[in-house]
Specification:
Length: 104
């Protein structure tokens, strides 16, 4: 889906890691939320509350999911699931555009 209709956009930006990661929240009529964001190259660890689906729209990063000691290479057009109440780390190698869907 490249376009969302009939949504509410929260005007204030979500800014993480001194501006290394910035996103905007999109709220759908049924109350579900997504964030649309952009990551600069760097290493970032995020903590989750709800489960998430991260779609990488463009860019390239290495990903370390909870419970894994291995890094996986992820690029534009790929996605990954993150369990609730966990942490995951990304080593972003190139400017990366993403969409995060909060599940549950």
């Amino acid at each position: 889906m490249s376009e969302f209709t009939n949504v509410t956009i929260v005007r204030e930006a979500n800014v993480y890691f001194n501006g290394g990661v910035v996103s905007r929240t999109v709220i759908f009529p049924d109350g579900t939320k997504k964030t649309l964001g952009f990551m600069q190259p760097g290493e970032y660890t995020f903590n989750t509350g709800a489960p998430e689906i991260m779609e990488i729209l463009s860019g390239e990063l290495d990903l370390k999911l909870p419970g894994s000691e291995l890094w996986d290479r992820i690029g534009g057009g790929e996605s990954f699931d993150v369990p609730a109440n966990s942490a995951f780390t990304m080593r972003v190698h190139a400017l990366t555009d993403y969409c995060c869907s909060f599940v549950g």
